[in-house]
Amino acid sequence: MLKRVTRLVPRACQLDPGHFLHGGPQAPQSLAARLDDQVPDENPRAGSHPSEDDPAGAGEQREGRHYRIPLQDLPTVFPHGLPRRFSLQVRTFNEACLMVRRPALELLRHLDDTNFAHPAVRYVLYGEKGTGKTLSLCHVVHFCAKRDWLIVHVPDAHLWVKSSRGLLRSAYSRRRFDQPVEAANWLKSFKTANERFLSQIKIQETYMWNKRESTEKGRPLGEVVEQGLTRVKNATDAVGIVLKELKSQSCSGAFRLLVAVDGVNALWGRTTLKREDKSLMAPEELALVHSLRKMVRNDWHGGAVVLALSQTGSLFTPRMACLPQELLGKEGFDALDPFVPILVSNYSPEEFESCIQYYLENSWLQHEKAHTEEGKKELLFLSDANPGQLERLCAYL
Amino acid sequence: MAAPAGKVARGWSVLALGLRSAVPRLPGLTQVRWSRYSPEYRDPQTDKEYYRKPLAELTEEEKCEQELRKTQLIKAAPAAKTSSVFEDPVISKFINMMMKGGNKVLARSLMTQTLEAVKRKQFEKYHAASAEEQATIERNPYTIFHQALKNCEPVIGLVPILRGGHFYQVPVPLPARRRRFLAMKWMITECREKKHRRTLMPEKLSHELLEAFHNQGPVIKKKHDMHKMAEANRALAHYRWW
Q1: Are A360 and A260 in a shared domain?
Q2: What is the domain count for chain A?
Q3: Which of left, alpha, beta for B34 (phi over 0: left; psi -120 to 50: alpha)?
Q4: A183, A159 in Cβ contact below 8 A?
Q5: Per the domain annotation, does B165 fall within a domain?
Q6: What are the φ/ψ torsions at residue A361 (nearest 5 degrees)?
Q7: Each residue of B206-220: pLDDT tens digit?
Q8: Which residue stretches belong to region Disordered (chain A) (predicted)?
Q9: Which of 278-337 (A) contact B at CB < 8 A?
Q10: Is-contact A182 A189, C-beta < 8 A?
Q11: pLDDT reported for residue B25
């Protein structure tokens, strides 16, 4: 399945979107064997003990095991925070452990194999609610951060299209609207995550903020970010400039760029923001959405784009919708086409067992019956091996 | 486990007609709440282990009972009663008491959030404590819940008895179910009424449960007040005739 897809790309460059299969790509044995030579192998520890801190996928032996993210990395790699329930778990256990699962391993292998001369490949994580799309995305972001890539991480695009307080008319384009608060927050997280790159990257054009302030050509990118943070009214334009510069300069090879967006279906959905005349806005009228849409196009090279769909925060989509066609709509699907779909499914029996073992090792399952076989069977039945549901069940047991 | 088919009221009430009860007619006792089932209905057995026992291990009584169950009428199990291994009758009763307007879903979710909150607080304390203290910190929310309610149960209660035109508060030993009921009722009332309006129930309840577990807090104080009042009215104890 996926092997077929990767062979299709260089052969004819004619990609029929209808033929992308939704079956979870099973890593063929030969592919794994070839990759294991390139990716250094970790020493897997027995059971589900958290292994070393290196998130590098190390072959199928690590599948189902947990790996630990060092706590001091968390504020730099995830400055806006992790998903709420996971951050509660991190606070309770005093450690951040993610399970290494097949979809994330697939993605890491593809990222290791990327040909940076080719246009950026878009990977879309999709699946039912609670299967682990966001955490797989976080795993990939941590992997790339460890490999010193430049990360453009939007933790939840849905937050940009709903309940925004200060909407201003954009100074750059009369048709669009600015969101100063969201843009400023994003710039702050971007600065914390990519501190070391901000002084190295120089902008290639002069930008006039207003009659008195401007940023000259050749100044470091950090100045644009500072300008956006100090003058909050220009924050959205600063975001647009940052994304544009990163896109044009990633081809030079000075850095590798990873664009990670969660809830990407918000960019092509509907908003609940109103104009002055109380009519609902379309997402393309928001400047932030406009710049992000340009970013996830594949007209640049030197990096990769990893996206995750999400029905949970989305507006006006049915609850059971989980497939890319349903969540992105025709417009979004055509914009993202061609992409590599990666299905994130519920736990396999081994993964379920590993998860329960992890909870037992941390003494999270306190109920005496939860340690028994009967209890485990009941947990499996009640949660249907769905990671999100299992976590909620074990929280009160 | 045949529960009495109906509740009886003490004191004098109008005798209801057409009673069918297993409770013997006593003077001054009236049927107040009764069930639609007649006395020959037996309670349902939801314990999976009971049915899994192989035939050889059963004693004579159990074999006899199983034979009887084949022919006798059995009541329908209530919707909230499950054969889950995690089921706890005390927790179910507490959820029912917290429920308002029949919204069992909300009451149950509040209970689970409370247990989670208790667990997280105890884990925080555990990680912050030294090695010797870690052995003393209890992290199981169910043990904490049961122990807290047990600590809140009053031993002796007061009952208004009419003598000579006046009601006197007479100290009386309480049956077990009345004690459990009072503990739960006080806990819920305390959380609903005495806390700030904006705090959520799981937060309030987890705080109260942890305090009661350590024998502190307003609910324990209420229990002690009840004991003190009973002690103060010790002289009226002979008004009780049962």
Answers
A1: no
A2: 2
A3: beta
A4: no
A5: yes
A6: -65, -35
A7: 999 999 999 999 999
A8: 38-62
A9: none
A10: no
A11: 57
Structural domain that includes position A221: 66-343
**A362-368: long-range contacts at Cβ-Cβ below 8 A with a sequence spacing of 24 or more?**
A362/A93, A363/B139, A364/A92, A364/A93, A364/A394, A365/A394, A365/A397, A366/A397, A366/B119, A366/B139, A366/B140, A366/B141, A366/B142, A367/A397, A367/B86, A367/B140, A367/B142
Same domain, A305 and A356: no
Tell me the longest C-alpha to C-alpha distance in chain A. Answer: 73
Write out the two tokens for A222: 């950090």
Token reading at B157: 């209660």
A372 contacts on B by Cβ (under 8 Å): 85
Contact A374 B141 (CB under 8 A): no
With 90 as the cut, is the pLDDT of residue B55 above it? no
The model's pTM is 0.83
Query: Looking at per-residue confidence, does A14 or B39 come out higher?
Result: B39
Whole-angstrom distance, CA of residue A332 vs CA of residue A339: 12
CB contact under 8 Å between A367 and B140, yes or no, is yes
Contacts of B51 in chain A (CB under 8 A): none
Same-domain pairing of A321 and A298: yes
DSSP characters for A293-327? HHHTSSS-BSEEEEEE--STT-SS--TT--SHHHH
Torsion (CA) A321, A323, A329, A334 in degrees, nearest 10: 170
Are A213 and A258 contained in the same domain? yes
E strand or H helix that includes residue B168: strand B166-173
B127: which chain A residues are within 8 Å (Cβ-Cβ)?
94
Q: Is B113's Cβ below 8 Å from some Cβ in A? A: yes
Q: Which residue has the tokens 């045949």?
A: B2
- Eight-state DSSP code of residue A69: E
